[in-house]
Amino acid sequence: MPDRRALCAFGACRLALGRPGGKARTGVGLMDPFLLMLIIPLVSGALLTVVGERAWAPHLNIIASAGTFLASALLTVEIVAQGPRFAFGEHFFIDSMNVFFVALTAFVGMTTSIFSGPYMRNERERGRLTAPRLRLYKSMYQIFMFTMLVALTTNNLGILWVAMEAATLTTVLLVSLYRTPASLEAAWKYFILCGVGIAQALFGTILLYFAAERVLGHTGNALLWTHLVDVKGQLEPAIMALSFIFLLVGYGTKVGLAPLHNWLPDAHAEGPTPVSAVLSGLLLNVALYAILRCKVLADGAIGGDFAGNLMMGFGLLTLLVAAFFLGRQKDIKRMFAYSSIEHMGLITFAFGMGGAVANFAGFLHMTMHSLTKSAIFFAVGHATQKVGTQLMADIRGLIRINPVIGWGLMLGTLAILGMPPFGVFASEFMILTHAMKHHPWATPILLLALGVAFASIFGKVQPMVFGETEARRLPHAPAITPVFIHLAIVLMLGLWIPPYLTRWFHEAARMLG
Amino acid sequence: MNAGVPLSAQLINLCAAVILLLAFAMLAQRRVMPLINLFGLQGLVLAGSTLVVAVTTHQAHLYWSAGLTLLLKAMLLPWILHRLVRKLYVKWDIESLVNVPATMLIGIVLVIVAFNVALPISQFSSTISRGTLGIALATVMLAFLMMITRTKAIPQVVGFLAMENGLFLAATSATYGMPMVVELGIALDVLVGMIILGVFFFQIREQFDSLDIRHMEHLKE
């Protein structure tokens, strides 16, 4: 944690902008954790392109991701201690809501880079990838992290859109990394569907700017979230309603909300497993974050439950569709991709209900889902590499091939299905009880979907872990540690949430209103 | 047209109407090269209408975005597409899932829907070009329809880019354009996306020997 007075001595630190509340700070020093957090992935992405595939390139990837995580941790400490701040004038804004996503993104980014080291080397030795593609993978991975961190920290809703689109473009290249017909098809579908979705989000952003311009005037400030939130009560409700619909459908496509969720299972199943892990664990969260930021404005302008009801409707529809498609899956990564859709539906529903408890549960569930689902994808990645197939019918007896992977997959599955004592149970329980109290009509739908999902996933994972098989060794020992780090955190959060984390979630939930 | 409307507003409305007509022409066009030319022409008219708004309202940044539109959408993107088509030896005929007359009828319905959605919104606008918001939304929807009904990769991409044209028209007509930094970002995304897609086309053709999307229907439940 750099000394802020030292930063001021650097001549780069300008203090309080005199906004209401007076807490927000601005200014960026050379050793500012925020600046480091954005520069490290950008520079290392460029560097990894230049140096190409060397023996130490995976280590550079890990070191860069660890550096990003360290910077984000310092930033989190700073925000928790000193309140929200700006950076680069008012272009970036970090408060307790987005710093939570930043820390989660950087953490899963780091563990995924650790996981992908041996995984990608195994893929290369199996002949599925060549050196130039590994170079492409690593540099795009870092650029992808960069775009997500920009999307999370920018104060400008227009730049948020630009960063989301850039994240789509980098992941299109990552999904098609194997260049098989199926992966190209998946990447094409991903590009077209998300392109259409993101175009609708742009129209929503234009309408938002239109509404804002009438209040804030035709300046660059009219898309800055901090300015918008100050005048949200004056924004024209008719325009804001239309704008929110477009934004919800547009960014919702990237969240994986039905009916535009089709790209998600294909992209998860056909891309490399580390990419599936970051898509499920991070990208969906970032898209949902964009919706939440817009929801705050829409709620302030329209009043009532308009935005919340829309989100509840989309959330429930998504949950139901995903739960019933789960049972029909044959490919293990497709099945867990549908499980991600299901959970995103549940989280969208929770935020749709609104209020302190439901928002708290939503944030908690997002954290749990990110950690658990990426852990599952790590375990699934190693398992499919061992067995040489993604077809669930051909994966049997993981517990005998490699007990650690077998247990990792089993525990991860139990965690994601909401079994106590894992943290997913706590958040799902909160969402359910809150729904029972305030929206009793939704309870049977929620229970039905969760029950169907449980039966489908557990019924398929059980024989994969405990069935009969013959074993085979991998040339590079898999990186199992990330699986258990994630599951340990999820377990801990299920049993005990540290008080500062609770405060932090409460703070973020309060910001949503 | 009522007599009180100033010349510049009439010019802007004319440009918007031509853009909508071009959107219909693209929907009906069966060949790849003319389709790309129509797209370039649409970009040119878009740049022209942005310029008219800029001259009328003296918004300095609109000159820049008119120039950017001219450079990117009327010249650079059509040029990249032309090169791609020639290099890929794409078959010139475009096949459509729905026949042209039916597509046109659906298009007309979409235009009516777009006008009705935009009507209550555009009355809040104080810009000289507010009447064109409905046309902009209609252009977006027609481009969307083109993406759905076409079975080849390149027409789908042209549809995607035409949708971006419609969005740009919406931004200039409702608000005199987005802030410059956002517009630059969007332009950069479109350009990078186009380059990535160019690389992507070669990969697709290598794998499937064709750019027909119907070969890519294996990923099903």
Question: What is the topological layout?
Answer:
The complex is a heterodimer of chains A (513) and B (221).
Chain A: H1 4-9, H2 33-51, H3 57-82, E1 85-87, E2 92-94, H4 96-125, H5 131-153, H6 157-175, H7 181-216, H8 225-230, H9 237-255, H10 263-270, H11 273-302, H12 306-326, H13 332-353, H14 355-387, H15 398-401, H16 403-416, H17 423-438, H18 443-466, H19 481-495, H20 499-512
Helix pairs in contact in A: 2-3, 2-5, 3-4, 3-5, 4-5, 4-11, 4-14, 4-20, 5-6, 5-11, 6-7, 6-11, 7-9, 7-10, 9-11, 9-12, 10-13, 11-13, 11-14, 12-13, 12-18, 13-14, 14-16, 14-17, 14-19, 14-20, 16-18, 16-19, 17-19
Chain B: H1 7-28, H2 32-57, H3 60-88, H4 100-122, H5 133-149, H6 153-175, H7 180-208
DSSP helix fraction of chain B: over 70%
Structural category of chain B = mainly alpha
State mean pLDDT of chain B (0 to 100 scale): 85
Kindly report the average pLDDT value of chain A: 87
Largest sheet of chain A: 2 strands, antiparallel
The radius of gyration of chain B is 18 Å
Q: What assembly state would you assign to the polypeptide chains in this entry?
A: heterodimer
Spatially, the strands of the biggest sheet of chain A line up as 1-2
- Number of extended strands of chain B: 0
Number of helices of chain A: 20
List keywords for this structure.
heterodimer, A: 513 residues, two-stranded antiparallel ribbon, 75% helix, globular, B: 221 residues, mainly alpha
Short description:
Chain A is mainly α. In chain A, 75% of the residues lie in helices and 1% in strands.
Give a verbal description of the structure.
The complex is a heterodimer of chains A (513) and B (221). Chain A is built from 20 helices and 2 strands. With 513 residues, chain A is mainly alpha-helical. A two-stranded antiparallel ribbon of chain A has the order 1-2. In chain A, a hairpin with a 4-residue loop joins strand 1 and strand 2. The longest helix of chain A has 36 residues. Chain B has 221 residues and is an all-alpha fold. The termini of chain B are far apart. At the A-B interface, helix 6, helix 7, helix 9 and helix 10 of A face helix 4, helix 5, helix 6 and helix 7 of B.
